[in-house]
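JOB MANIFEST
job_type = single_chain_structure
chain_count = 1
residues = 126
[input]
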Amino acid sequence: MAFASLTLTAIDCPDPYRLAEFYAAVLGGEVTNGPGEEGHWVELRLPDGQRLAFQRAPGLRAPDWPRADDNSQQLHLDLSVVDIDTAHERVLELGARPLDVDDDGGKRNFRVYADPAGHPFCLVRE
């Protein structure tokens, strides 16, 4: 039986506000400063009530996707989309970098990108 519930997912990054704004443009929601030193912790409150937090980590080295032997990705976000081609163009406009976008003519239901801080995330066709 569960004895805890997930409060939020925190993501290390060099510039918390910039990364929160990127995900707000992708997912919607409201960006707010978190507790403590201003700009050190920024939260994104999503329309469905979930929260993502972005914590300043000045020396962060982006993961070496898809390698797992050195500086692995550790986690990534899967983001469901209805129109993957439109979502692809939009995340690129917002500063994402393509990592693996060859979906074999639509046979594979996802594409992999890096957010502006270098964290991998996937757009997944609904």
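[summary]
Strands lie at 9-13, 30-33, 41-45, 51-56, 77-81, 97-100, 110-114, 120-125.
The first helix runs from residue 16 to 27.
exit_status = 0
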